[in-house]
């Protein structure tokens, strides 16, 4: 299982490894995070990193979904997503926007 320690490492994982990562979970700061299939219907925020779109959307209470895509997107189609605890959201957004 991939072990990720901070938001910089999470972004690098999303850009470089996520598309071909064979498992359905990762370890992030000691928490086991599920990788599931969700759609692009309710994306709230997106950032382009290299040639990858990293998008953020609300999920179950206390969590948000993070997706990474390098191909054309069709809203309503399913895509791989990591379900991340809300306590990470502000730091991830700040890191993606260069404020952290």
Q: Spans of 5+ residues with little confidence (pLDDT < 50)?
A: none
Strand content: 35-45%
Q: How many β-strand stretches? A: 7
Overall spatial form: globular
Biggest sheet architecture: 7 strands, mixed
- Termini Cα gap: 27 Å
- Helix/strand-derived category reads alpha+beta
Integer average pLDDT:
90
The SSE string, one letter per element, is: EHEEEEEEH
Count of helix runs: 2
Gyration radius over CA = 12 Å
What percentage of residues falls in helices of 4 or more residues?
A: 10-25%
Strand order of the largest sheet: 1-2-3-7-6-5-4
Oligomer: single chain
Could you describe the 3D structure shown?
18% of the residues lie in helices and 42% in strands. It is built from two helices and seven strands. It has helices spanning 7-16, 89-96; strands spanning 3-4, 25-28, 31-39, 45-49, 52-58, 63-69, 78-85. It has a seven-stranded mixed sheet, covered by helices on one side.
């Amino acid at each position: 299982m991939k072990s990720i320690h901070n938001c910089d490492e999470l972004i690098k994982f999303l850009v470089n490894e996520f598309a071909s990562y064979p498992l359905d979970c990762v370890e992030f700061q000691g928490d086991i995070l599920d990788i599931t299939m969700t759609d692009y219907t309710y994306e709230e925020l997106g950032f382009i990193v290299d040639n990858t779109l990293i998008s953020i959307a609300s999920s179950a209470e206390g969590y948000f979904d993070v997706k990474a895509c390098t191909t054309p997107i069709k809203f309503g189609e399913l895509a791989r997503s990591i379900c991340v605890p809300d306590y990470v959201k502000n730091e991830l957004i700040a890191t993606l926007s260069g404020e952290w």
